[in-house]
C-alpha cells in the first residue's frame, strides 16, 4: 500500500444541530444523524481513500456490532482493512457527538480495543512496505510504547518510508509517552494544545522548535480557525485557514493529515502540502462527520476549491 494508517479506530455517531439535551423522555427533532469511521488512524484512512490514495489501515476493533460496522464502512470507502484485528470480548471504541449550531462538538467517548493494540497484532511488512506510515494516536495506543516498535519504525525509515504522526487526546499525562516517538517520525502534526502540553512552552513557535529538536524534519501545529504553523530547520511559515461556513469540526485534524500526506505523495513541499491539508480540512468542516464533503473528490478538485476561496489573497 502507498499509505498505512496505524493506531486508533473509533465509530462516531453524530447528530446536528443540538442546542440542548431534552428533559425526561422528551424528543428533540434534528436535521441530520450520521455514523462514521473515525479516529486518528481510521478517519485519516477514509479521507485518503476518498482522495484516491491507496491506503491500508491497521489497528484494533472489538468483536461487536460496532466493529462489524467499522470494518464494513472503511472497506466500502476503499480502505484495505486486513490489518484491523478483532479482539474477542472487547468493545469497539465509540463516541457520541452532539454537534452545536456553531460547529462545536462536545463528546461522550468509550475507549475500547485500541488501548490494547500491540506490536504482536501488527504485520511488520505493512510498515516496511509502505511509502508513508501515519501513526494516529500513539498517545493512547499504549501497547505500541515498545522499543521493538520504535526499531521497526527506524528500519522502515532506513528503507525510504516516511513516517507522519498525529495524536488523539489533550491529556497532559499522556504527552511524555507520545513525545518518545518523535526520534522515529519525519513529520509531526499536533494541535496547538498538544504542542504546548508536550513542551511546556508558552507559544506555538517555541513549542514547534522544541519538538523539532526531538527529531522530526517538520512540525505542523494546527491552530483551528487561525490555520496552521509549519516549522522546519529553515524557519516558520503560517498557512491561513480558509474562510468557509462551519457545520462540524469533527475530524478536521484527520482531514488535514490526509491532505498533507496526499500532497507529499504528489511531490509537493511541506508548505504546499500543508495548504492542501487546509483545503481538505475546510471541505470536511462544511459537513457532518470526519469524512464529510469528500465523496467524488480528488487531490486536484480539493486544491481547486481551495484556490477559488483564496484567490486574490497573498500567498505564503
Q: What can you tell me about this protein's structure?
A:
- The chain has ten helices and 13 strands.
- The radius of gyration is 18 Å and the shape is globular.
- Helix 5 links the parallel strand 9 and strand 10 (187-188).
- Mean pLDDT is 92; it is low at 310-316.
- The protein has one domain (3-19, 32-310): 3-Layer(aba) Sandwich (UDP-N-acetylmuramoyl-L-alanine:D-glutamate ligase).
- A nine-stranded mixed sheet has the order 5-4-1-8-9-10-11-12-13, sandwiched between helices. Strands 3-2-6-7 form a four-stranded mixed sheet.
- It is of the alpha/beta class.
Instruction: Label the CATH architecture.
Output: 3-Layer(aba) Sandwich
What CATH calls the topology is: UDP-N-acetylmuramoyl-L-alanine:D-glutamate ligase
Measured as a percent range, the helix fraction is 25-40%
DSSP strand tally: 13
Q: Would you summarize the structure shown here?
A:
Its EC number is 2.7.1.-. The chain is α/β, with parallel strands linked by helices and 316 residues long.
What key phrases describe this protein's structure?
9-stranded mixed beta sheet, 316 residues, 13 strands, alpha/beta, 10 helices, globular, UDP-N-acetylmuramoyl-L-alanine:D-glutamate ligase
SSE diagram, text form:
Blueprint: E1 3-7, E2 10-16, E3 32-38, H1 42-50, E4 55-62, H2 65-76, E5 80-87, E6 94-98, E7 108-110, H3 124-128, E8 132-136, H4 147-158, E9 162-166, H5 175-179, E10 187-188, H6 192-199, H7 204-212, E11 218-222, E12 228-232, E13 235-239, H8 252-265, H9 270-285, H10 299-310
Helix pairs in contact: 1-8, 6-7, 8-9, 9-10
Amino acid at each position: 500500500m502507498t499509505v498505512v494508517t496505524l493506531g486508533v479506530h473509533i465509530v462516531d455517531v453524530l447528530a446536528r444541530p443540538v442546542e440542548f439535551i431534552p428533559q425526561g423522555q422528551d424528543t428533540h427533532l434534528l436535521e441530520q444523524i450520521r455514523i462514521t469511521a473515525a479516529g486518528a488512524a481510521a478517519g485519516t484512512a477514509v479521507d485518503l481513500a476518498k482522495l484516491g490514495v491507496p491506503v491500508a489501515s491497521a489497528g484494533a476493533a472489538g468483536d461487536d456490532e460496532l466493529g462489524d460496522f467499522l470494518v464494513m464502512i472503511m472497506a466500502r470507502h476503499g480502505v484495505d482493512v486486513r490489518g484491523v484485528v478483532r479482539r474477542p470480548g472487547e468493545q469497539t471504541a465509540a463516541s457520541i457527538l452532539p454537534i452545536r449550531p456553531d460547529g462545536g462538538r462536545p463528546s461522550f467517548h468509550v475507549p475500547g480495543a485500541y488501548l490494547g493494540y500491540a506490536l504482536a497484532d501488527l504485520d511488520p511488512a505493512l510498515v516496511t512496505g509502505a511509502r508513508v506510515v501515519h501513526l494516529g494516536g500513539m498517545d493512547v495506543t499504549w501497547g505500541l510504547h515498545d522499543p521493538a516498535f520504535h526499531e521497526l519504525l527506524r528500519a522502515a525509515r532506513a528503507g525510504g518510508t516516511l513516517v507522519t504522526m498525529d495524536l488523539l487526546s489533550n491529556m497532559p499525562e499522556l504527552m511524555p509517552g507520545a513525545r518518545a516517538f518523535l526520534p522515529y517520525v519525519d513529520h509531526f502534526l499536533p494541535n496547538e494544545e498538544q504542542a504546548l502540553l508536550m513542551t511546556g512552552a508558552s507559544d506555538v513557535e517555541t513549542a514547534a522548535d522544541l519538538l523539532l529538536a526531538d527529531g522530526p524534519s517538520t512540525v505542523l501545529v494546527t491552530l483551528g480557525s487561525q490555520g496552521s504553523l509549519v516549522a522546519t530547520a529553515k524557519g516558520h511559515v503560517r498557512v491561513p485557514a480558509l474562510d468557509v461556513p462551519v457545520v462540524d469540526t469533527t475530524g478536521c485534524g484527520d482531514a488535514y493529515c490526509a491532505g498533507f500526506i496526499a500532497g507529499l505523495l504528489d511531490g509537493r513541499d511541506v508548505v504546499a502540502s500543508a495548504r492542501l491539508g487546509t483545503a481538505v480540512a475546510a471541505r470536511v468542516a462544511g459537513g457532518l462527520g470526519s469524512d464529510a464533503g469528500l465523496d467524488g473528490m480528488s487531490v486536484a478538485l480539493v486544491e481547486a476549491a481551495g484556490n477559488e476561496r483564496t484567490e486574490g489573497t497573498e500567498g505564503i
